[in-house]
Amino acid sequence: MDDSFNPFKNEPSVSQHQEKRIQTTVQTNIIDNYEPFNNEPAVISTSTNQNTSKQVSLDKLEKMQRDLEDRSRRLAEEEERLGRRENQIDYSGSINNFPPFPRCCPVKPCFYQAIDVEIPTEYRLIVRIAYYTWMAYVVILLINIFGTLSYMIINKVDSDTGSFFGVSILYFVLFTPLSYILWYRPLYKAFKNNSSFNFFMFFIAFVTQIIILIIQMLGIKLLGSCGWMISSTVSNNFGVKVFMLIIATGFTVELAMCIFIIIKVNVYFRNSGGSIQKAKEELGHEAAASSTLRSTATGIITNQYGVNK
């Protein structure tokens, strides 16, 4: 039988079957020849970059979260600190901060001082100069004690040197607080409130301060200061003499600064329109306010405790 003879050769179903078999064979060959890892480096690189980007993003988010937590903690601490500070505020709305005693000290600050807060900008420089001048005066008084002690040591035969040393200690103990209260605080309040009354209080006390400085600069014997006169009499110890002359120079510079301050303050006072009349009016207002305050306090005590019952 002839193989070429096929009675179903021209049948449509047979033709379709042959075409499907050919397509299947081609697809099988394609699949067999397909190498899925030819593009592996590119695919892996893209995937790695995506993973790295996600990791970096997570790290940034974690860092931002930590920063936010730290800020929240600091804000809470600051709020707590401000709360404690508000509890310590006195009736005037400010915390006494001078003298700056340590917290363990039983003596607490007596005054509130904040030049950058309470003093107008144009007056801050002169107030700050006055404050530093006061501090320098305190330091000179302290050094003066050691100068008089040195003088007493090299002049043991002189019985008056003990008094000389004792008066220097008295100067330091008395003039340190008095100079601050009597002339610096009035100056501070005068510029703070533009108060003619406080200006006059300052002028009276500061003129007295200048007179005392003149005496201390001169160094009259037994008056407790290592001024020029007593320093020049030292001949048996060159080192002590130089030390005492340095103290005399300190008193001289302090005197010059005080003269400069009183001149500048007088100019500010006149330019601000201050006068004796305004000082009298302020004094009258202060007296009236004090009288009203006393009457109010008496009424409260009477109503509270029934004093008049």
What is the terminal separation in angstroms?
152 Å
Q: Strand-residue fraction?
A: under 5%
State the low-pLDDT regions, or none. 39-46, 87-92
Sequence of secondary-structure elements? HHHHHHHHH
Radius of gyration: 46 Å
Structural category: mainly alpha
The geometry reads as extended
Q: Give the averaged pLDDT, no decimals.
A: 77
**Share of helical residues:** over 70%
Largest sheet: none
Describe the structure.
The model is unreliable at about 40-45 and about 85-90 (pLDDT under 50). Helix 5 (about 160-195) runs antiparallel to helix 6 (about 195-220). The longest helix is centred in the first third of the chain and has 49 residues, at about 40-90. The chain has a domain at about 120-280. The chain is extended. The protein has about 300 residues and is mainly α. It has helices at about 10-35, 40-90, 115-120, 125-155, 160-195, 195-220, 230, 240-270, 275-305.
Give the secondary structure arrangement, pairings included.
Elements: H1 12-33, H2 40-88, H3 115-118, H4 124-154, H5 161-193, H6 196-218, H7 228-232, H8 238-271, H9 276-305
Helix pairs in contact: 4-5, 4-8, 5-6, 6-8, 6-9
Keywords for this structure?
mainly alpha, 309 residues
Question: What's this entry about, in short?
Answer:
The chain is mainly α.
